[in-house]
Write a sequence for this structure.
């Protein structure tokens, strides 16, 4: 079946087959139930990472990949395996012998065929639940002839494209609010970047979760719970089963009572007070209390990223504000009022050595407080919605609760336009990296821009002909100096070794480098699409010689 | 060309005739830039040219251990990096839950051996490469099997399997009397591992860089729950699940062996755990969590496997050809907060029981071989590692536990002073034992004043 979009035919594979399958499923007594169980089994190992919500977001995604050399093909392969909704390949090239040496998605007998359709059918066979389409046209031509084509996608992944085409594509994607991800493999080097006006993350899932347990300022219900325990009980079994949270609050209270209301001046002082109350050094609850004592003396503070979001201009609302910013505005009000400077409690409690019953009582008090905090934020969200003339129920309770649970770790990412980055001076952080003794990865960023300028001038990449390598090295050095000049780093130097190596590679796209770059591109796509985890905050350079990467916050 | 058809794999395909017919002009254009052209940031002794390319295609044999998430990627990456002779070993069969990342497998392959299908698919796509599958446990192969390969690449998910291979490979290592490793006995290993958005790649050059045993501490300890918590004071859904799995199963279903792959067994665990959780007012026991806890499921995604495996394959190419400088020995990858890919160089343990020139053992100068063996058996460093050791000195058998004829021949040595047997000086003894996966090298130091203590430093 062919679908016409503008000038080009988009071919949709196997629609009939899928339709037949669907009809088959519909005939079953419990339509879809078995298919759903199969899906959950197939995606089990990733559902444990991004959950049902993350998976649903992927299944809704409509991704466009520009060029399917190994970099584009590998990125897409990882996404197709993960079960995205649909993809469209845009590639205008024919398959050559060299594709057989670096691209696993090219079949041996397909030399001479069109690359877009060949890779599309191989990927469709890999996961038939993903809708597969292709356009046999060069991305550069499509950018010129039919910019609105890109408006239909959730995400565009542009691979192996020059800076000049990317500047235009970036403008188009921003106009249509489409996420753009750029990936490039070049010899033993690579580059990945994200470009989008704004990406907000509620579920950042940081590796080291901040334990927000409020031992330093227990609320009345928590205090009441603590008072139900006699931590000096004569019963040795009870003594070693009192949850450490209760111990910390009680010991702190006693300390303050003995010291005229003062807090312990150091962690050591508090730890000494804890140690003096334990009966023997094998009491696990006391061990845990000592470990967590720092939470009393240095309770978690608001992270700079959260403060930045609270003070962001977008937190000043208007009638077009997004759900996220409305909730941020409500959070800000909450912090200034009910929260008394603390964000909503997330309600989770780490395991504490104790009797089941004690632990559950502690859990319930924390959960009740989290519920109450979320309810307070919800009330503020509703009244804000009303104020800005929107339906007060426009944001669901579930969404608000989810937001509150993750409030401490909110993140907002804004990426400069590719055109801005190309035409302006580099930031001070980048300048510093470039001036460092080992500036390899910063120098590679400059060199990858230089090869595009080289190619624009000479209509080929440096080092593609054996006979011209020496000349190309000289030319590339001077082009790199021009780039340095343009970004305001004319004093910096680019190591000759790297210039030579870049010319040695002659724009080669090595499979393994493409697999790394495509892997990173797929990973960042997943983060952008699910709204979970923390994406790249700036352009990334991958160096396969040293097996390192550097992210530049330009 | 060295090609073999494994007797244990009736389906092992006939070696393909590799000739011009499977190589179209220009096929390796991109890789050739790296292998045929001289470079500056290259390894020692890199010789650019067709010979280097032909060497990895025809002569270099690489073993991939594991045909799972990393293994599938590794086979693809190595094949497209010009390696022509690959073998792969895996004892597992394909499961539905593999399909989100093990891209060589399809729904119709479920239940088939991973090694067999992976080998077939790679050969189907990358013409000219030969991949020999081995559907068996690594322990089923003797050390001569592993010795055939120039490089061994590990795509494993268990510490035990890594330790095993490490011991076997370090067992091939021999040292010069001055303590430097004999280059021809070094068999490099490249090891990858992933969990969710995180992973590592590392290069092990036995005798030169830290072996797996030297840096065991890099791996975090396993989380286990105290049995009394499970039995008496459960507080989390995992506590309830582990109670049923570890304790209640044995009580209620005596005589039945729990099989995590039996759906009825898993369902029973889930239902009992849910009951227990309800009794204790604990919420959150689900079927999925039950499986995760009982099988210790490690979350896994395609992208991390792709990144780690490709890093391993590139380092394999660098080791084989020196076409680029190698990375520092350990690469750590984290993809949860931006992208973090860093390398570091960690230190070899000079007394490592697996890879060092010799673990120092100090004995009295008058010690007999029998007494020396007794000392070894009592040494806590070798606990559970040796039970009936045979001892040899630079290829000469001092005492052999078997076969009987050799035992009898070497038995008189047991009563002789070790120092005499060793020619009057301390030095390296090789200990063989059926419990050892490789070999144990011991540096004997005699406790006398006339022995220069500098030799106690080891190699």
């Amino acid at each position: 079946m062919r679908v016409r979009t503008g000038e080009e035919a988009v071919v949709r594979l196997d629609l009939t087959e899928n339709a037949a399958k669907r009809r088959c499923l519909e005939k079953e007594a419990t339509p879809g139930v078995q298919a759903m169980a199969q899906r959950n089994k197939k995606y089990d190992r990733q559902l444990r990472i991004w959950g049902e919500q993350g998976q649903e977001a992927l299944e809704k995604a409509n991704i466009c990949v520009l060029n399917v050399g190994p970099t584009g093909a590998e990125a897409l392969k990882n996404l197709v395996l993960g079960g995205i909704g649909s993809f469209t390949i845009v590639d205008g090239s024919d398959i050559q012998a060299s594709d057989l040496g670096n691209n696993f998605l090219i079949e041996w007998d397909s030399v001479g065929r069109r690359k877009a359709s060949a890779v599309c059918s191989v990927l469709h066979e890999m996961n038939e639940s993903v809708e597969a389409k292709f356009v046999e046209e060069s991305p550069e031509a499509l950018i010129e002839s039919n910019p609105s084509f890109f408006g239909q996608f959730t995400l565009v992944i542009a691979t192996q494209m020059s800076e000049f085409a990317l500047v235009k594509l970036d403008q188009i994607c921003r106009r249509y609010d489409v996420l753009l991800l750029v990936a490039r493999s070049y010899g033993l080097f690579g580059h990945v970047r994200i470009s989008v006006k704004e990406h907000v993350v509620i579920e950042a899932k940081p590796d080291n979760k901040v334990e927000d347990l409020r031992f330093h300022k227990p609320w009345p219900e928590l205090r009441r719970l603590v008072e139900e325990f006699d931590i000096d009980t004569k019963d040795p079994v009870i003594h070693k089963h009192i949850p450490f949270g209760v111990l910390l609050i009680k010991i702190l209270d006693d300390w303050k009572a003995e010291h005229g209301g003062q807090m312990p001046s150091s962690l050591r002082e508090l730890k000494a007070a804890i140690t003096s109350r334990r009966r023997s050094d094998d009491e696990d609850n006391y061990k845990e209390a000592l470990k967590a004592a720092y939470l009393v003396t240095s309770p978690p503070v608001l992270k700079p990223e959260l403060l930045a979001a609270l003070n962001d201009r977008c937190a000043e609302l208007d009638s077009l504000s997004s759900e996220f910013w409305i909730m941020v505005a409500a959070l800000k009000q909450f912090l200034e009022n009910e929260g008394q400077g603390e964000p909503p409690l997330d309600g989770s409690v780490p395991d504490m050595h104790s009797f089941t019953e004690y632990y559950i009582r502690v859990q319930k008090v924390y959960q009740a407080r989290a519920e109450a905090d979320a309810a307070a934020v919800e009330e503020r969200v509703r009244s804000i919605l009303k104020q800005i003339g929107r339906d007060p129920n426009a944001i669901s309770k579930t969404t608000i609760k989810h937001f509150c649970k993750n409030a401490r770790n909110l993140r907002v990412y804004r990426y400069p336009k590719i055109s801005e980055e190309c035409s302006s001076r580099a930031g001070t952080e980048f300048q510093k990296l470039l001036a460092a003794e080992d500036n390899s990865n910063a120098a590679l960023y400059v060199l990858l821009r230089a090869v595009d300028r080289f190619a624009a001038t000479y209509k080929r990449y440096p080092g593609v002909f054996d006979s011209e390598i020496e000349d190309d090295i000289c030319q590339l050095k001077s082009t790199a100096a021009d780039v340095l000049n343009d970004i305001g780093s004319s004093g910096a130097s680019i190591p000759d070794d790297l210039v030579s190596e870049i010319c040695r590679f002659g724009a080669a796209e090595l499979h393994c480098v493409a697999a790394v770059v495509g892997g990173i591109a797929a990973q960042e796509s997943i983060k952008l699409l699910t709204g979970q985890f923390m994406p790249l905050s700036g352009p990334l350079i991958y160096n396969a010689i040293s097996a390192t990467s550097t992210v530049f916050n330009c | 060309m060295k090609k073999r058809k494994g007797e244990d794999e009736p389906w092992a395909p006939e070696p393909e005739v590799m000739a011009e017919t499977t190589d179209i002009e220009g096929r390796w254009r991109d890789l050739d830039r790296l292998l045929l052209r001289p470079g500056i940031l290259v390894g020692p002794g890199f010789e650019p040219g067709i010979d280097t390319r032909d060497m990895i295609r025809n002569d270099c044999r690489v073993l991939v251990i594991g045909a799972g998430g990393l293994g599938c990627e590794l086979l693809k990456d190595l094949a497209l990096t010009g390696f022509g002779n690959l073998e792969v070993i895996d004892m597992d069969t394909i499961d539905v839950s593999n399909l989100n990342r093990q891209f060589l497998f399809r729904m119709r392959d479920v239940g088939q051996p991973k090694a067999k299908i992976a080998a077939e698919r790679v050969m189907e796509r990358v013409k000219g490469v030969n991949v020999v599958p081995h559907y068996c446990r690594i322990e089923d192969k003797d050390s001569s099997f592993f010795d055939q390969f120039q490089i061994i690449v590990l795509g494993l998910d268990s510490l035990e399997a890594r330790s095993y291979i490490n011991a076997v490979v370090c067992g091939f290592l021999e040292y010069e009397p001055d303590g430097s490793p004999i280059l021809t006995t070094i068999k490099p290993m490249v090891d990858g591992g992933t969990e969710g958005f995180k992973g590592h790649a590392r290069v092990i050059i036995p005798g030169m860089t830290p072996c797996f045993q030297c840096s065991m501490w890099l791996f975090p300890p396993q989380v286990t729950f105290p049995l009394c918590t499970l039995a008496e004071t459960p507080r989390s859904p995992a506590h309830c699940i582990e109670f049923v799995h570890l304790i209640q199963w044995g009580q209620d279903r005596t005589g039945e062996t729990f099989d995590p792959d039996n759906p009825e067994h898993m369902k029973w665990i889930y239902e009992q755990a849910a009951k227990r959780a309800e009794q204790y007012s604990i919420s959150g026991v689900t079927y999925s969590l039950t499986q995760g806890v009982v099988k210790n499921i490690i979350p896994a995604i395609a992208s991390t496997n792709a990144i780690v495996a490709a890093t391993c394959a590139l380092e394999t190419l660098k080791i084989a050809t020196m076409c680029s400088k190698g990375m520092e020995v350990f690469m750590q990858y984290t993809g949860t907060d931006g992208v973090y890919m860093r390398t570091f160089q960690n230190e070899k343990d000079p007394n490592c029981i697996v890879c060092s020139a010799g673990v120092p053992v100090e004995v009295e100068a008058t010690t007999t071989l029998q007494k020396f063996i007794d000392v070894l058996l009592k040494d806590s460093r070798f606990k559970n590692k040796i039970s009936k050791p045979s001892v040899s000195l630079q290829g000469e058998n001092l005492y052999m536990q078997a076969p009987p004829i050799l035992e009898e021949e070497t038995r008189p040595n047991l009563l002789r002073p070790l120092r005499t047997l060793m020619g009057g000086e301390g030095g390296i003894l090789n200990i063989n034992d059926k419990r050892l996966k490789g070999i144990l090298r011991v540096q004997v130091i005699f406790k006398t004043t006339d022995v220069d203590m500098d030799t106690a430093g080891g190699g």
In short: The first strand of chain A starts at residue 2 and ends at 5.
